Amino acid sequence: MLSSKLTSFLFLITFVLCSQNVFAAYERVGHACVSSENFTSNDPYDTNMKELLSYLVYETPSTGFGMGSKGEGQNRAYGSALCRADVPQVNCTDCLVQAINDIGSLCWPNKGAVAWYKYCQLKYSSSDHFGVIDHSNWHVNYGAENVSEPTSFSQKTTNLLSSLAEEASMSSKMSAIGNVELYGSEKLYGLVQCTRDLSSMACKECLTRSISALPNCCSGKKSVRIYGGSCDIRHVAL
Ligand SMILES: *[C@@H]1O[C@H](CO)[C@@H](O)[C@H](O)[C@H]1NC(C)=O
Ligand SMILES: *[C@@H]1O[C@H](CO)[C@@H](O)[C@H](O)[C@H]1NC(C)=O
Ligand SMILES: *[C@@H]1O[C@H](CO)[C@@H](O)[C@H](O)[C@H]1NC(C)=O
């Protein structure tokens, strides 16, 4: 899956970028540990997982999504990476390079982790999670500002995000971005996306579930992001 040349290259860019500490793209918003098993440093799982993460940094930016597995049996590591749909490739790369350096220590010695960053998200685990909606891991983030008319705002938000969810589930990149007019000169912007291991139907189900959580978590909030293990939604009024 991975040549030693590539590994050296990634090590080099990782080293250069980190030593300069120039990361606007890097900002962890949350994380969760997802496995019931542990591993030890430098055991075969550790090696497989690290190689897999390097592969994902290399593989993901051109399309915004990457997935893969490495190793055999109980040492096999599964992982996927997703960049925010509106982020240029260079910032996707920056985010993932930072993410692979950050994620390893978050859950150690747990065999699985998912972490969400401003421009990307990364997940690895010792079990095959591809194609299955992750309902367990999510992170909610909202701005302090409230809207003046929560009821109609909530309706507009649900309508916009639901139509984007429909669009995303049918699109090859499993993402959709759109906006609608609000009061005065304000607009409501929405973005939804799924990890592309999901089927079209599962993507829609994942997004629909997150959208239906909005009234409970974030009623009246102008700007909301719900990050999930399999799908993300966000809206902001500007
Ligand atoms: C995994 O490691 C954690 C932290 O060291 C420990 O609390 C936990 O009991 C371990 N779990 C297993 C299944 O060994
Ligand atoms: C994306 O990366 C470029 C090049 O490093 C940088 O100039 C730009 O500010 C980044 N964009 C964002 C939105 O962070
Ligand atoms: C928004 O509403 C919440 C709950 O009513 C309140 O605690 C908070 O201070 C409000 N935020 C602003 C910026 O006014």
TrEMBL record:
It is found in: Secreted. Pfam families: Stress-antifung. Residues 1-24 form the signal peptide. Keywords: Repeat, Secreted, Signal. CDD domains: Gnk2-like. Gene3D superfamilies: Gnk2 domain, C-X8-C-X2-C motif. Residues 27-129, 135-238 form the Gnk2-homologous domain. GO terms for cellular component: extracellular region. It comes from the Eukaryota. Its main location: secreted. Transmembrane segments: none annotated. InterPro entries: CRR_secretory_protein, GNK2, GNK2_sf. Belongs to the cysteine-rich repeat secretory protein family. This is Cysteine-rich repeat secretory protein.
